[in-house]
Amino acid sequence: MREDRILLSHGGGGVMMKKLIEDLIVAKLGNPILDRLGDSAVVEVGERIAFTTDSFIVKPIFFRGGDIGALAVFGTVNDLAVQGATPQHISLSLIIEEGFAVSDLERILDSIRSASGRAGVSVVTGDTKVVERGAADGIFINTSGIGTIPPGVSLSPKNIRTGDKVIVSGFIGDHGIAVLSEREGLEFETPVESDAAPVAEITSAALAASTAVRCMRDPTRGGVAATVNEMAQAANLGIRLFERGIPVHESVRAACDMLGFDPLSVANEGKVVIVCASSDAAPVLEAIRGTGLGRNASAIGEVIAEHPGKVSMQTAAGGIRMVDIPYGEQLPRIC
Amino acid sequence: MREDRILLSHGGGGVMMKKLIEDLIVAKLGNPILDRLGDSAVVEVGERIAFTTDSFIVKPIFFRGGDIGALAVFGTVNDLAVQGATPQHISLSLIIEEGFAVSDLERILDSIRSASGRAGVSVVTGDTKVVERGAADGIFINTSGIGTIPPGVSLSPKNIRTGDKVIVSGFIGDHGIAVLSEREGLEFETPVESDAAPVAEITSAALAASTAVRCMRDPTRGGVAATVNEMAQAANLGIRLFERGIPVHESVRAACDMLGFDPLSVANEGKVVIVCASSDAAPVLEAIRGTGLGRNASAIGEVIAEHPGKVSMQTAAGGIRMVDIPYGEQLPRIC
User: Fold this and answer.
1) Is pTM, for the whole model, over 0.80?
2) Nearest CA to B164 among B218, B223, B103, B237?
3) Is there a domain that residue A209 lies in?
4) Helices B281-289/B200-209 angle, 10° precision
5) Is A89 domain-assigned?
6) N or C: which end of chain B has fewer CB within 10 A?
7) In chain A, which residue's Cα lies nearest the Cα of B326?
């Protein structure tokens, strides 16, 4: 592309938009389905599919361990994976502010290409809009995704039973703290990197290891606290966490202490919370740990009959405290 | 909802977001699939589906004949319909500026509900983000959609042959002029209304009437001019339009004359351009006219061997002029 900056005319439906799409977007992300550039993509799928959407407004758009492009891919494929689906196709819709640096757009598209490759999906359809200077903050990205659900897989928090175990696939809170550090210019002794990653390898390992996986969720906005609270509410059962079992990097814990955050409420972008039958917890944990990404997986809690709809935690000090769903914007624009 | 204005905390992944989603979005748009509020929706589809995405940034968000909500539904279902698919499910992703009036959000959600009903689709999954004041312009909406393609249907501009006829399903340019009038406070003797509408009834009537429908497109940004140019380029054949056959409301023509626009380049949101074999043009036209929405359908051109990749027009005055793809932003933020 000849221009250094995105112009309003790049969104006008004419020659300029065609050039932006062909010279940059298709050049970076092309594949036989996308290359057709139809109004919609024609794809082959199984009869039962998972379908999801997410818009990404993260600020800043580049941060340690990721960027808005990688996040847009992983956020959406992870929503498919936790439904037990194999992510297959994603859409990509860009809302770009006039004046946005084309070099930044290129960097984001490169990141989307690399993240899509890692996640095993293709961008098969898309849309590009440009708004005038001041009408958006740089770039917002929407991705939607579809994936096929294998026969027999049916996950739902309604399947949760008393005695089930709660597993998390690794260290929590990294993404939120990484983005916040970047935004606020905070420096920690050990810099915190976003955990942005595709979790499908973990979710499929869990499903292969056990037919008693009840449900899975990726703890993004609102963190593990929001996720387990939603599970407890949907199941109308209690969840008891064990603080000692929850993997938190020292640097994240220190940052949270300093900032007054609870690591349980901080966003993750490459983790999954899994509830499975107690009898299958060991094989599920072993299977998850066998994947590179899940090597720090840990059992962090169990489902109890008490306090239905609520989450409590046995603290490291031995007491019990309630874990509430966070109220509002602890960390705005985190994804 | 108790609040009058959207707050940053409505996007925080916590209690406030849950209330916004449950009290407003699910209350307005609920259905058995959406009500599950999983990370992704599980839907049953055919083996071959169409998949599309569109972000809507139209300004103003309310205009004569429609609003951003109706547009978000019709824009996406129409992209499915022109692929020959039966639209089934859509996703809804909102990016809202802090301070946005909740009453306007309600009005938009009502419009989405009504438009979805009219288009025969359900909102099955969604996402809501809130950005701080000044970081977006009110509200941006992304919808993605999936629809099943019946066996045997395979539409592509590559199927176009010399001699084929080009049909448009009704009056062109209404949407663009309606939005522009609203934005610029222009008053015309006969006010122009957006044509925003779902075209699936028209596309399925055409497909039922003929097995020689080559391809269909909805002429949105860039108008009929961009659409037929894209078709000509993809087919590497010429397209000759006949100005006398092109349905344009007098008020739209007058507005275009005044503003220096070509109605061919102005956006539509409820029209479809169809290319079919010459022998089937009459039954296709009759079938389209039999639908309420397509009663003003007209044959507007034919495919020729000359000027491959280019579009020309026999003017009302009898001359021939080239119809170029518009260059850039004739009308920014039109959809």
Assistant:
1) yes
2) B237
3) yes
4) 140
5) yes
6) N
7) A14
d(Cα B136, Cα B129) in Å, to the nearest integer? 11
Taking the Cβ of residue A176 and every Cβ of chain B, the question of whether any pair is shorter than 8 Å is answered with: no
Tens of pLDDT, residue by residue over B63-95, are 999 999 999 999 999 999 999 999 999 999 999
Domain termination residue (choose one: A91, A121, A148): A148
Min distance A54 CA to chain B CA atoms (Å):
6
Tell me the CA end-to-end span of chain A in Å, nearest whole number.
Answer: 29
- pLDDT, tens digit, for every residue of A22-37? 888 888 888 888 887 7
Question: For position A107, which CATH number holds?
Answer: 3.30.1330.10
* B130 interaction partners in chain A (CB closer than 8 Å): 329, 332
* B165 within domain boundaries: yes
CB A84 within 8 A of CB A207: yes
DSSP state, A5? B
Domain membership flag for residue B335: no
- Give me the sheet containing A139-148, strands edge to edge: A122-131, A86-97, A139-148, A48-56, B41-44
Do B168 and B315 have their domain in common?
yes
Highest mean predicted confidence (pLDDT) among A284-293, B149-158, B253-262: A284-293
B221: Cα separation from own chain's centroid: 9
Residue in chain A nearest B92 by alpha carbon: A53
- Name the phi and psi angles at B10, rounded to 5: -70, -10
Distance of alpha carbon B138 from alpha carbon B283, whole angstroms: 46
Q: Are residues A314 and A182 in the same domain?
A: yes
Q: Which of B93, B119, B148 is the C-terminal boundary of a domain?
A: B148
Distance between CA B240 and CA B321 in Å, rounded? 10
Q: Which residues pair with B298 in a beta bridge?
A: B168
Residue A214 touches partner B, C-beta closer than 8 Å = no
Q: Which residues of B touch A329 (CB under 8 A)?
A: 7-9, 11-12, 14, 16, 130
The answer to whether A89 contacts B51, with C-beta atoms less than 8 Å apart, is yes
Locate the chain B residue with the closest alpha carbon to A127. B54
Q: What interhelical angle do A102-119 and A68-81 show, nearest 10?
A: 30
What total number of domains does chain B contain? 2
Q: Are residues B114 and B201 in the same domain?
A: no
Q: Is the ipTM here above 0.90?
A: yes
Q: Which domain holds residue A114?
A: 8-148
